[in-house]
Amino acid sequence: MPTHTPRGTQDTSRATSPGTGDKVLDATDLLQRDHRQVESWLHTCESLSDQQQKAELIQKICMALKVHTQIEEEIFYPRARAGTGEEGLVQDAINEHAEVKQLINEIEQRQAQGQDCAEQLEVLRQSLAHHIQEEENEMFPKVRNSDIDLFALGSELATRRSELMQQMSAQKSQTNPGGGL
Ligand SMILES: [Fe+2]
Ligand SMILES: [Fe+2]
């Protein structure tokens, strides 16, 4: 009998970022963590009855999705296209992002006007489920099988993600200094 091998429990982090102590993640792992986070927030959103809490969570979801789609389009997809030659998969993903962004705009506009956006959130949930499934089951395995340095790419994505988060939070507090809706 072979000795115990901890399959499926391997540590996917390789090192820590100098100065910050943050773990450097494999790029596909970092993106998958974003997916799980947004899925979990969308799930929580369904059961929230407090309208203020719900509005704040929806804002958080929209911002996370804007940042996530931007880092994928700016950094991850070009690298995936070059490293795997999967032009079709990348183009499909970009087209799906356009739909997601359209839904985010609609949700933000409705929120600003105090309108209910349950229907748009449901469409967003379905659209994301399809998109995430394609990324995780088709694109990411191809990227993992390529020569791309996934940890270097993960570090680039993490840096850009924090920059964008800071920018967007600053914009939000400029346009909305009270922090409310
Ligand atoms: Fe993604
Ligand atoms: Fe995506």
3D architecture notes:
There is one protein chain. The chain has 5 helices and 2 strands. It has a single domain (24-167), classed as Up-down Bundle (Four Helix Bundle (Hemerythrin (Met), subunit A)), CATH 1.20.120. Mean pLDDT is 88; it is low at 1-10. The protein has a two-stranded antiparallel ribbon. Strand 1 and strand 2 form a beta hairpin. With 181 residues, the protein is mainly alpha-helical. One fe (ii) ion is lined by residues 69, 72, 93, 97, 131, 135.
Short description:
By secondary structure, the protein is mainly alpha-helical.
Write the layout of secondary structure elements.
Elements: E1 13-16, E2 23-25, H1 27-47, H2 51-84, H3 87-112, H4 118-144, H5 150-175
Antiparallel strand pairs: 1-2
This protein binds fe (ii) ion (FE2) (2 copies).
